[in-house]
Predict the 3D structure of the following.
Amino acid sequence: MPTRIAAALTLAICLVCARLAPGQAGPGTLVAVWAHADDEVPIGPVLARYAREGAQVYMIIATDGAQGAANTSIPRGPELAKVRSEEANCSAQALGIHPPILLGFPDGVLGSYISGQGLLFELTQRLQAELQRLRPDALITWGPDGGMGHPDHRIVSNIVTQLARAGAPGVPERLLYSSIPVEGFAAMYPQRGAPPFMVPQDKYFNTRVSFSAADLEAARRSMSCHKTQYSDEVVRRVSDAMRNVWNGQVQLSSLSPAPGGSDIFR
Ligand SMILES: [Zn+2]
């Protein structure tokens, strides 16, 4: 085929690629579902790697983050929610993934049945609708421990697991759980370390995802976007600790009893 025709054909195919609907383009679609902006920290390099390799990578963030004021003088409320949405955008950009999908549910009360009995059902419906739209091939969320026990994390994990087990439209069986290594807790909370019984036993980690130095650097930059949550000192300490414990591979556990491997999609 003459070079010019081949080039024109390639361009035409690429233009078609760019217009493909979510879930149809690239080597696969990966969606991470979180309670808060900054929940991606324990698997930052995984998101960066798949985005770099051409997968469609999205984050859905259930709450508005209006109550998370760990490292800021901004009062809790709408102003803080706005800043946290900007931080989520900054993080997604650093990881090279799509802009975050922010659902805006109230922060800190997803597990409160008394204050909003319809909340859980509404969140379930919203998550299912988003997943049906994105049609992921693989999902990542917190494990049943919520990583650190946070009720919002537990609820999001629970709903995503519910949808996967029920075979809800658009929700794949391939569901992986993120967790925080003991060393990550120690770096983040030097005074108190990891809460008891929070980290799964080694035998449950059946998927090990390798990453490049560039992915690791993207993850560090992504964490440093969350200025209302982490000081520069904490970013440095946690990034160093996680780099050591990862040792080139992020470990995940999967819902499916099938043996895992080294790839999110297989
Ligand atoms: Zn969180």
User: Anything to note?
Assistant: The chain has one domain: 25-254. The mean pLDDT is 90. DSSP finds nine helices and seven strands in the chain.
